[in-house]
Amino acid sequence: MERPGPATRVIHSGEGKSYQAASLTTPIYETTTFVFDSADDVRQYQEGTSQKFLYSRYGNPTVVATEDVLASIDGAERALVFSSGMGAISTTLLSLLKAGDEVVCASAIYGGTYHLINGVLPGFNIGTRFVTLEALQAPAEVIGDRTRVVWFETPTNPTLRCLGIRAVAAACRARGVISVLDNTFASPINQQPMALGVDLAMQSATKYLNGHSDVTAGVIAGSKALLQGIERTRRMLGTVLDPQPAYALARGLRTLTLRIARHNENAMTVATFLEGHPRVARVFYPGLASHPDRAVAQAQMAGFGGMVTFDLPGGLPQASRVYDRLKVIRRAASLGGVESLASLPVLTSHWGFSDEALARAAVTPGLVRLSVGLEDAADLIEDLAQALEG
């Protein structure tokens, strides 16, 4: 397929006049299908020798242009976008795994990923095994004969633990196993999975990549060889992203570096304040000297991200009181937007986990997760201070 960019179009007016419009940005190709000049054109497309598009479920100029930008940001040969983060995860796993295979997954993982691997994949006779973060520190020991994929996050959701990416990737490569890192919390500005040896980098593009809480999308980046099969599965499952949100996602990417710098700065300020507050039992943020994985984070991250989680000694009742008193920070799920958001993991991302699964993920009832936005840090601290005093 041709790689679209700024386009020149001839526009015909109702008065018989023609104008040329040279677009600075890739236009939104809001069309389901594309026109061919001849049967021979169609044949060339099907044989893979044509630069044209056939049908937007297979490929669309706006979507492809966005994918090219994402691949460049991730330092990958190619990227594919999907209708959601879960669309990216499910399509990727169903492409890479077959009956009898096994996926090894970190027990500290996003709730949607957990429920997919724990509740859906076994129905396809795909083996699933959840291992602790401590076990993944020695990744070669958790890979079995049936293992085909190792899926992990770093920093993890919501406790922001960090794993050595190079070690996991190297162990997988040595055994011919595909490593997949969910890089949503870090973003490719703070962490470059491809450069650290990972086979595939996944992100919920809904979050930092778009950055404005108005697009639902997912992305997988990696080698052309690996993504070829995933693209075929995407065509069959229909999980491709629509051109309109693809355009909005590309627009959000233009400010990604600037936004991440402010997220990093504000989150560090908020985390430092919370760590010094007498009513907070513990703060989870990789940039703090108290974080158990700070050395790991420093070795593989350019910045520590915009997510801060803190634990309150009174459990869910106290966490709920603080949550309910917030005024500037909005009470909402998701993350990565320009506005600051608060959520209670046991009621949102980790709802439906068994007590045993919550314990394995180190998710306690008193956790409050903050997505620190771009507001004035002093306003965020004032808001947290009044909420904690209530």
Order of helices and strands: EEHHEHEHEHEHEHEEHHHEHEHEEHEH
How many helical elements? Answer: 14
How many beta strands in the DSSP annotation?
14
CATH superfamily of the largest domain: Type I PLP-dependent aspartate aminotransferase-like (Major domain)
pLDDT < 50 stretches: 1-6
Label the CATH architecture of the largest domain: 3-Layer(aba) Sandwich
Determine Rg (CA atoms, Å). 22 Å
CATH class of the largest domain: Alpha Beta
Number of domains: 2
CATH fold-level topology of the largest domain:
Aspartate Aminotransferase, domain 2
Measure the end-to-end span: 59 Å
Fraction in beta strands: 15-25%
How would you sum up this structure, described in words?
The protein has helices spanning 39-47, 61-74, 85-96, 111-120, 133-136, 165-174, 187-190, 224-237, 243-253, 256-275, 294-300, 315-325, 355-360, 377-389; strands at 8-12, 18-22, 78-82, 102-106, 127-131, 147-153, 178-182, 200-204, 218-222, 282-284, 307-311, 330-331, 341-343, 367-371. The protein is an alpha/beta fold. The protein folds into two domains: 55-253, 3-Layer(aba) Sandwich (Aspartate Aminotransferase, domain 2), CATH 3.40.640; 256-389, Aspartate Aminotransferase, domain 1 (Alpha-Beta Complex), CATH 3.90.1150.10. The strands form three sheets. The chain has a seven-stranded mixed beta sheet, with helices on both faces.
Keywords:
single chain; 390 residues; alpha/beta; Aspartate Aminotransferase, domain 2; Aspartate Aminotransferase, domain 1; 2 domains; seven-stranded mixed sheet; five-stranded mixed sheet; 14 helices; 14 strands; 37% helix
